[in-house]
Amino acid sequence: YFILQATKLSEEQRPVLLAPVLSRGWAIVENRDAIFKNYKFENFQQAFAFMSYVALNAEKMGHHPEWFNVYNRVDITLTTHDCSGLSDRDLQLAGIADEAAGHFV
Ligand SMILES: C[C@H](O)[C@H](O)[C@H]1CNC2=NC(N)=NC(=O)C2=N1
After folding, report:
1. What is the DSSP letter of 73?
2. Which residue, judged by its Cα, is nearest atom 1 of ligand 1?
3. Ligand 1: which residue has its CA nearest to atom 2?
4. In the chain, what are the domain boundaries?
5. pLDDT at 105
6. Which of 5, 64, 87, 90 to mutate to test the pocket of ligand 1 (most atoms within 8 A of CB)?
7. Under a CB-based contact definition with an 8 Å cutoff, are residues 58 and 93 in contact?
8. Which of 13, 37, 68, 94 has its CA 20 to 30 A from that of 20?
9. Which of 63, 78, 86 to mutate to test the pocket of ligand 1 (most atoms within 8 A of CB)?
């Protein structure tokens, strides 16, 4: 599926598909077609276990997060450079990250 071109969310899809993601704590980045969320865990081990899980799934998808970690904090930004904006892949990876975070909170 790497060879399939990521397609930017259409104006019609945007409000519909972004609503559930925004309701789970993601926010739109200013001046950039991207979403971000900050996660906080009990300690570094939990944060890094979360990152490992997300990293494996991101690699499988061929879709990688921009992220930043210090101790128990993980900040994630998602966007698709292949289509210069948000695609369904960002929403899919956001879903994987949220589901994973549930196991480490
Ligand atoms: C060739 C390779 O699959 C592409 O460059 C992938 C890699 N990972 C990616 N990750 C993200 N976040 N956006 C992309 O457009 C993207 N493109």
Report:
1. E
2. 2
3. 62
4. 23-102
5. 66
6. 64
7. yes
8. 68
9. 63
Give CA–CA dist 20/1, Å, rounded: 25
| The pair of three-digit structure tokens given for residue 68, joined into one six-digit string | 């930043």
Q: Write the residue with the smallest CA distance to atom 8 of ligand 1.
A: 63
User: Which single residue is written with the structure tokens 């992220």?
Assistant: 67
CB contact set of 71 (below 8 Å; sequence gap of 6+): 43, 44, 47
Q: How confident is the model at residue 104 (pLDDT cuts 50, 70, 90)?
A: confident
In CATH terms, the superfamily for domain 23-102 is Transcriptional coactivator/pterin dehydratase (3.30.1360.20)
C-alpha to C-alpha distance for 35 and 22, rounded to whole angstroms: 9
pLDDT digits (tens, 9 = 90+) for 19-56: 999 999 999 999 999 999 999 999 999 999 999 999 99
Structure tokens that stand for 17 in this block? 């598909």
Helix (H, G, I), strand (E, B) or coil at 12: coil
